[in-house]
Amino acid sequence: MTHASKAENRPDSSPANPKALYGGTSSRRVTVRDIAAAKVRGEKWPMLTAYDAMTASVFDESGIPVLLVGDSMGNCHLGYDSTVPVTMDEIALLSAAVVRGTKRALIVGDLPFGSYQEGSVQALRNATRLVKEAGVGAVKLEGGERSADQIDLLVRSGIPVMAHIGLTPQSVNAYGGYPVQGRGEEAAQQLLRDAKAVQDAGAFAVVLELVPAELAAEVTRTLHIPTVGIGAGQECDAQVLVWTDMAGMTAGRVPRFVKQYANLREVLGGAAKSFAADVVGGLYPAEEHAFH
Ligand code: KIV
């Protein structure tokens, strides 16, 4: 049965599962135990990035159960041309804002490039900072087998970890771009080893970025932790998009795997132009906006 036909077959009137990550009735913060339970139920769930309190509050009120304060903030929020320059200070500041703006979503803070590659102790120091200073409920870091030691120490220290394998954007300089990963037998076997390594190290979920759909489906069937796909086909347990791509805020081309659900760039630009025209034409402020 395809993804589309599964959705079509779901009766609209069926009562929502009160425990569902999306559409459930619980208003307390989502935890990693809720995420694990969703995999057991076979429930799919959405995740978005967020970089500020106000946008995060919109997604939280919309029921998105997991928000990632991704280092994609480099490209989408801070004006860098990749995620590489993003610092711990920037992630900590924006993670704290997203936590303050939300009540229910599990907030995952991304560990930026250079904040965990030295080893487990460095990873623990920086992850602890995100948990204590920003109040995140979990952290994310890139790498499979190569990051297993870091994941292991963080998890043993009480910090839930979301892993990230396949295309790991912090390695853009090594890749020379953003190529699809896991193509060919050897690369596919490495991806499977990476997936098992992060699960064995204790990760509660794993992002699969830009990998062939068939391989992502195999990883999803093999693991008992949920897979979160981005450019990884239909079979992952969850799907994540960068919010500015999803809502049509990003300028220029977006990756082929992105579906744009709005054209916020046009809406916001239109609002700015209307405001400007009113100011120039003397229509704003009007009498009702004035104090006497
Ligand atoms: O930083 C980010 O937004 C991410 C997602 C694309 C998974 O890592």
TrEMBL record:
Residues 1-11 have a biased composition (Basic and acidic residues). It is found in: Cytoplasm. Its cofactor is Mg(2+). The active site is at residue 209. Residues 1-25 are annotated as: Disordered. Mg(2+) binds at residues 71, 110, 142. Coiled coil: none annotated. Pathway: Cofactor biosynthesis; (R)-pantothenate biosynthesis; (R)-pantoate from 3-methyl-2-oxobutanoate: step 1/2. InterPro entries: Pantoate_hydroxy_MeTrfase, Pyrv/PenolPyrv_kinase-like_dom, Pyrv_kinase-like_dom_sf. Keywords: Cytoplasm, Magnesium, Metal-binding, Pantothenate biosynthesis, Transferase. Catalyzes the reversible reaction in which hydroxymethyl group from 5,10-methylenetetrahydrofolate is transferred onto alpha-ketoisovalerate to form ketopantoate. Belongs to the PanB family. PANTHER family: 3-METHYL-2-OXOBUTANOATE HYDROXYMETHYLTRANSFERASE (PTHR20881). Homodecamer; pentamer of dimers. This is 3-methyl-2-oxobutanoate hydroxymethyltransferase. It comes from Streptomyces syringium. The gene is panB.
